[in-house]
């Protein structure tokens, strides 16, 4: 297992972090999973009050471990009572302090307003030793995330950034310039359900598998500190052991894989490829055009239709955790058309996406 400095926190984190949102079958299974993860060299665990019994189960394991043998992140939602929520988390966990406290879902401008108001209290709690480092996750706009980073309040950031979704690339760059630790959320699942890939993607990624491709894309980037790894039981930790020491730059063979993927994207989508520039927004019908067309890119180029359905069906179900409306809401007003530098027939592509992805609506999971 390799380790990287978590930005200005100076914590030496393993490049995989154990996310505990899926490890909820029993306290015994979670205990075994934590033990195996620590033996593999994973030294960072991640939980949240909203992950079911995760904190309570961890509270049956962590107090018996040497405190210096792990780093722990938990979270707080904007608007929650800071002192109370943090105390309840620490009580459940049986610990005196968190290494990292993340504001969970700084998604809207009012959430940032809340942080500004709460910041004196956050500083006080940090000074009292209740937690050591403050960070945040966000599903908000690029502009909101940039503004939050630039407040200087935070020393780390949790991001959805993957080979198949590089929308937040400018934030990776900004976080690096500001020396923030970068924690990537859910690369195997939200990064394209790479644990159950379609045959075509499997073929294009040879000799790696798609999961390895996704991990190597992230791990070869020294600006990224650690990737969440949501094992449900010890047996699921094996790939973290395989990839956890593969942090070197891409070799020629791997570079060729990414070239092949890009070539296939160009070949299959041609002039229909959405370049994710966001220039089409805002849409008066509040359609999340870039997110929908990103899913379409993946479905057309790499057969990622099941993944597209999984994500698309969460639209209009998850509030500010996955903002915007579905493609069938397009009213053909034409506002977006002159703004698209690729001159895409956006309404047609949205209708096509809706046909590909529509289905029963899904409720969001906490790890969205
Ligand atoms: S044409 Fe459709 S997608 Fe484009 S701005 Fe109008 S409603 Fe939105
Ligand atoms: S402006 Fe065009 S290329 Fe850019 S995100 Fe919107 S649809 Fe995609």
Could you please describe the fold and organization of this structure?
The chain has 368 residues and is an alpha/beta fold. The chain has two domains: 3-249, NADP-dependent oxidoreductase domain (TIM Barrel), CATH 3.20.20.100; 269-357, no CATH class. Helix content is 39%, strand content 12%. The strands form two sheets. It has an eight-stranded parallel β-barrel with strand order 3-4-5-6-7-8-9-10, surrounded by four helices. The protein has a two-stranded antiparallel sheet with strand order 1-2. The two termini are 27 Å apart. 42% of the residues are buried. The chain binds iron/sulfur cluster (2 copies). Residues 283-285, 287, 289, 330-336, 346-347, 350 line the site of one iron/sulfur cluster. One iron/sulfur cluster (SF4) binds at residues 274-280, 289-290, 293, 339-340, 342, 344, 346.
């Amino acid at each position: 297992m390799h380790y990287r400095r978590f930005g200005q926190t100076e914590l030496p984190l393993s490049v995989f972090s154990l996310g505990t949102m899926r490890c909820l079958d029993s306290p015994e299974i979670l205990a075994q999973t934590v033990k195996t993860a620590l033996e593999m060299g994973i030294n960072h665990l991640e939980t949240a009050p909203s992950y079911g019994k995760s904190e309570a189960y961890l509270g049956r394991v962590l107090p018996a471990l040497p405190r210096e043998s792990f780093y722990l992140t938990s979270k707080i939602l904007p608007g929650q009572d800071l002192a109370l929520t943090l105390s309840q988390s620490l009580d459940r966990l049986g610990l005196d302090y968190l290494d990292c406290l993340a504001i969970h879902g700084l998604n809207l401008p009012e959430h940032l307003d809340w942080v500004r108001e709460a910041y004196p209290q956050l500083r006080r709690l940090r000074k009292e030793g209740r937690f050591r480092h403050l960070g945040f996750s966000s599903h908000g706009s690029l502009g909101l995330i940039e503004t939050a980073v630039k407040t200087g309040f935070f020393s780390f950031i949790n991001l959805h950034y993957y080979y198949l979704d590089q929308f937040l690339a400018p934030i990776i760059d900004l976080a690096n310039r500001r020396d923030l630790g970068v924690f990537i959320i859910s690369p195997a699942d939200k990064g394209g359900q790479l644990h159950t890939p379609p045959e075509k993607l499997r073929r294009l990624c040879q000799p790696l598998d798609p999961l390895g491709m996704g991990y190597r894309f992230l791990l070869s980037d020294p600006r990224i500190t650690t990737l969440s790894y949501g094992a449900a039981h010890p047996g699921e930790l094996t790939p973290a052991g395989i990839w956890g020491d593969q942090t070197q730059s891409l070799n020629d063979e791997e570079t060729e894989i990414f070239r092949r993927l890009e070539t296939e994207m160009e070949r299959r989508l041609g002039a229909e490829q959405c370049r994710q520039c966001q220039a089409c927004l805002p849409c008066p019908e509040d359609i999340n055009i870039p997110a929908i067309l990103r899913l379409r890119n993946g479905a057309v180029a790499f057969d990622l239709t099941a993944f597209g359905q999984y994500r698309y069906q969460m639209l209009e179900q998850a509030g500010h955790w996955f903002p915007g409306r579905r493609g069938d809401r397009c009213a053909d007003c034409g506002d977006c058309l002159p703004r698209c530098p690729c001159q895409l027939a956006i309404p047609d592509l949205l209708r096509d996406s809706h046909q590909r992805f529509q289905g029963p609506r899904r409720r969001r999971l906490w790890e969205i």
